[in-house]
Amino acid sequence: MRILHVLDHSLPYVTDYSLKGRYIIKLQKDFGLSPVVITSPNHALISNPIEIIEGVFHYRTFLPEESTPPRRGCPFFKERSSMVSLGQAIYRVSSSQKIDVIHVHSPAFNGIAALETGQKKNIPLLYEIHDFGEKGLPKQADSMKEPATQALNKGLDRYLCRQAGAVVITEKGLRERMIEEGVSEGKIYTVSYGDDSSLLKPIQNEEEIQKRYNLQNSPVLGFIGSLFNHEGVDCLLQAFLKVREKVPETKLLLIDDGHGRPMAQATSQDASGHIIYVGQVKQKDIQRYYSLIDVLVYPQLKMNAAEDPSIQQPMEAMASGKAIIASDMSSLRKLITDKKTGLLFKAGDISDLAGKCLKLVINKHLRQTLGDCARFQMAQDRKWLQVMAQYLKAYKDLLSC
């Protein structure tokens, strides 16, 4: 079965969106399916029109040179140009290969671009709604974050869900709302998040990196993620300074995904070199850095209900057998059982965060116990094999119609 995945962007961008896409595609390939990927013009990191990533062909879409609006007062010109270019690229790939299912990943612009090809070539279309918000988009996709564009995307979402042969959602709460909006209940599939424990597993410390950053014999706290203000990095920095008052040899490793603000301000708070800003790390090397970190911290601040943090990166840490500390945001509370698979602290409370960090810095046995329980939970309750079975059912139902 050949599946054409239509993505907003993919690796080498490291976002929740691209990581989830990568896991789905790799697992399908391991299962014997033939996934093919095409990315929208929002994937601006293009070196070649066709790239092979982990054995899978990734076709890149270019915007035409005339995609710049000719004058003011031409709303959504770039979006329309992107959809046209992506639609043409989807048609070309579908014409050169026998595609059985077009699997479109949100935003809805991707699905609108794929609809015509699906109808012309009689290829069933599955539309999957990713619920990652702004953090799921690469830095270049600024237009997708504008209120007018988001409003248009929601309208297109509703239309696309009615037109698609199948719709995949990751939040059960969406099902009732979609049915109320006219989407047939029989074509809605709920696919739970999963982690790929075969990709992310505990490994021995990387001595070369350990020596480079002088981490020998030091308990290491770590943050991996976007450096937006709402991610709570400033809260973590202040908590870390409190921890160092008690355990001076503690170090903090900061790894970002290339988004948000520079970290010059963060590193300037600690002239001793105990706050180490690594910068961006390639996804293939991320396990090497996980091996150096004793405790992963996810200090997201409370913003509003629509900005609840993604759980993809905490799940990766748990699958790697790491102890984690996270703020008590609703999505993180659903993932983490406090004092069993991790520790939760009151979002924005520096003293509470510092206390939880200090507890794990001092207690190596507790770190190990939490990490082991977290990995066991990932292996038992959130297997990607179960996720794959749900996708296969949706594909088979589509092809049997």
Describe this structure in words.
- By secondary structure, this protein is of the alpha/beta class.
- It has two domains: 2-194 and 383-400, Rossmann fold (3-Layer(aba) Sandwich); 207-381, Rossmann fold.
- Helices cover 41% and strands 18% of the residues.
- The chain has helices spanning 16-30, 77-96, 108-121, 147-163, 173-180, 207-212, 233-246, 264-268, 286-290, 312-319, 330-335, 350-362, 364-381, 384-400; strands at residues 2-7, 34-39, 50-53, 56-60, 101-105, 125-128, 166-169, 188-190, 220-227, 251-260, 275-280, 295-298, 323-327, 343-345.
- The strands form two sheets. An eight-stranded mixed sheet has the order 3-4-2-1-5-6-7-8, with helices on both faces. It has a six-stranded parallel sheet with strand order 11-10-9-12-13-14, with helices on both faces.
- β9 (220-227), α7 and β10 form a beta-alpha-beta unit.
- Residues 132-136 and 264-269 have low confidence and may be disordered.
Summarize the structure.
By secondary structure, the protein is α/β, with parallel strands linked by helices.
